[in-house]
Amino acid sequence: MYNIKMKAGFIANLPKTRQELQDAKAELEQLEKQIRVFEATVDSRLGDLLDQLSDLNAETAALNEEIRKIREGRLFGTDLMEYSEGAPRPTRPQKLTDLPPQLLTSLDKTQVSVDNPYALHGMQIPDIKTLYRKLARRYHPDLARNAADRAQSNRQMVEINQAYSAGDIPALLNLAGMDIPYGVDITQQNYQPDRLSDRSLPEAEKLEIQIKAVRQRITRLSDLPIVRLSLEVKLARHQGRDLLHEIAGELRYKVARKTAERDYLNAQILASRKFLADGE
Length: 280
Fold this sequence. Notes:
- The longest helix has 75 residues, at 2-76.
- The protein has helices at 2-76, 78-85, 101-109, 128-138, 147-165, 169-176, 203-222, 225-238, 243-279.
- By secondary structure, the chain is an all-alpha fold.
- The protein contains 9 helices and no strands.
- Mean pLDDT is 75; it is low at 89-97, 99-123 and 178-197.
- Helix 1 (2-76) crosses helix 4 (128-138) and helix 4 runs antiparallel to helix 5.
């Protein structure tokens, strides 16, 4: 008797549950649209500066590594350096280009583009640099306005940079699918209500599972640093300030400093090479 009453209650609540799911989906769609619009604004106003800063950071890191090798070579000699450089390397993550031709052919036939975050079947391989740019702009630490957001962005950028340096497209695609970074989502692993079609579940329970999945996604998106930045931009606008203009000024200053650092490192390397050449 109790189960019968429960089932009757679920059936009576079905219209309300369906409406709740529709409302949640509408809220998610609106949030995703707002994020895309704001990111397009950030891209148009700050994208070039963020790209310059990312390139300079990568360049200075490579120059610092070269200086380290030069110094170690002078300290320990080239023989020891050659021995250490010949040490076994960690296994490199698999690239999509390393996959069997048959699988690549099947991937190419399916259409899931960077601009279509809701395609669930298969995958069209995007350009790795384009994918990296989109992820790097979404999580760029210099867009963070507080320490917590900066720490979160730094953690994410470590993974993004490691995957990009290794040429690991699958890892970048996986990172892109976590929270719809910059409109890129090729798997939607965390939000797949259409796959919740187990016929053994009553409709009311399936609807509840879908509502929970949508709500979880809304929470994850709301916690993104880029969303908090958009709120701060709106608040600054009410105060008569253009926060993105202020950030652009900060980025130009950082680009100038990084450029000077790069030039200094290049000068150090040239001086070291000249010193080694004169010593020989």
